[in-house]
């Protein structure tokens, strides 16, 4: 094994921080404790959701070769999979966003940098959660083209 380069990341909120950027430890109630707890609980649920997602999409049936428009449409015709994917979307996004929030708070020392990175993160998260939720609930499995013909990959139940 070669050890070409070794990088050590400084411990959070240490190093040469300009005193004008030091932050008060002012109370935010118990929000940080709840956020800490949320990371552990959502992590446990995510293991189940992610493995269920991978097994149903890639291991059973035709595997990855079977994943197309009709496959997704077939899954979302089942309220169980709609709920599964909705929960996966929300938990992964809130878990990932809260993790990134922690990293930004720990390593972005300048107030303005921290503010703008957080804003970009929250806007991106809101957009993805809103769009993803809309897609799951407004998805049209039996899509037709401009002439009213069903698309070729629609699930079998569209022809019935
Ligand atoms: C397989 C299920 C997962 C488990 C069990 C899990 C567990 C955890 C736990 C316990 C933490 C807190 C670590 C700490 O406070 O030191 C954490 C942090 C984090 N997680 Fe997850 N997680 C999972 C999936 C995900 C997913 C899908 C994403 C992305 C969408 C993600 C993104 C993050 C990020 C960005 C952090 C912050 C890392 C840090 O503080 O250094 N995790 N995860």
Structural class: mainly alpha
Secondary structure tally: strands: 0
Radius of gyration: 22 Å
β-strand amount? under 5%
CATH class (first level) name:
Mainly Alpha
Distance between the termini: 60 Å
User: How many individual domains?
Assistant: 1
Protein name: Succinate dehydrogenase / fumarate reductase membrane anchor subunit
GO molecular function: metal ion binding
Subcellular location: Membrane
Keywords: Heme, Iron, Membrane, Metal-binding, Transmembrane, Transmembrane helix
Protein model, in words:
The chain is mainly alpha-helical and 160 residues long. It has one domain (31-159): Fumarate reductase/succinate dehydrogenase, transmembrane subunit (3 helical TM bundles of succinate and fumarate reductases, Up-down Bundle), CATH 1.20.1300. The chain has four helices and no strands. The chain has helices spanning 31-59, 69-76, 79-107, 111-138. The longest helix is centred in the N-terminal third of the chain and has 29 residues, at 31-59. The chain starts with 30 loop residues before the first helix and ends in a 22-residue tail after the last helix. It binds protoporphyrin IX containing FE (HEM). Keywords: Heme, Iron, Membrane, Metal-binding, Transmembrane, Transmembrane helix. Its main location: membrane. Pfam families: Sdh_cyt.
Features of the shown structure:
binds protoporphyrin IX containing FE, 59% helix, mainly alpha, 3 helical TM bundles of succinate and fumarate reductases, 160 residues
């Amino acid at each position: 094994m070669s050890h070409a380069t070794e990088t050590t990341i400084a411990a959070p909120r240490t190093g040469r921080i300009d005193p004008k950027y030091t932050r008060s430890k002012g109370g935010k109630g118990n929000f940080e404790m709840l956020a800490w707890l949320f990371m552990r609980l959502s992590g446990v649920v995510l293991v189940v959701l992610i493995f269920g997602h991978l097994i149903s999409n890639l291991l059973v049936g035709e595997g990855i070769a079977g994943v197309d428009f009709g496959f997704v449409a077939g899954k979302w015709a089942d309220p169980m999979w709609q709920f599964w994917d909705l929960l996966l979307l929300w938990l992964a996004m809130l878990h990932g966003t809260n993790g990134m929030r922690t990293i930004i708070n720990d390593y972005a020392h300048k107030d303005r940098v921290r503010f703008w990175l957080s804003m970009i993160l929250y806007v991106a998260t809101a957009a993805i959660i809103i769009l993803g939720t809309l897609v799951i609930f407004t998805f049209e499995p039996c899509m037709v083209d401009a002439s009213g013909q069903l698309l070729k990959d629609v699930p079998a139940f569209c022809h019935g």
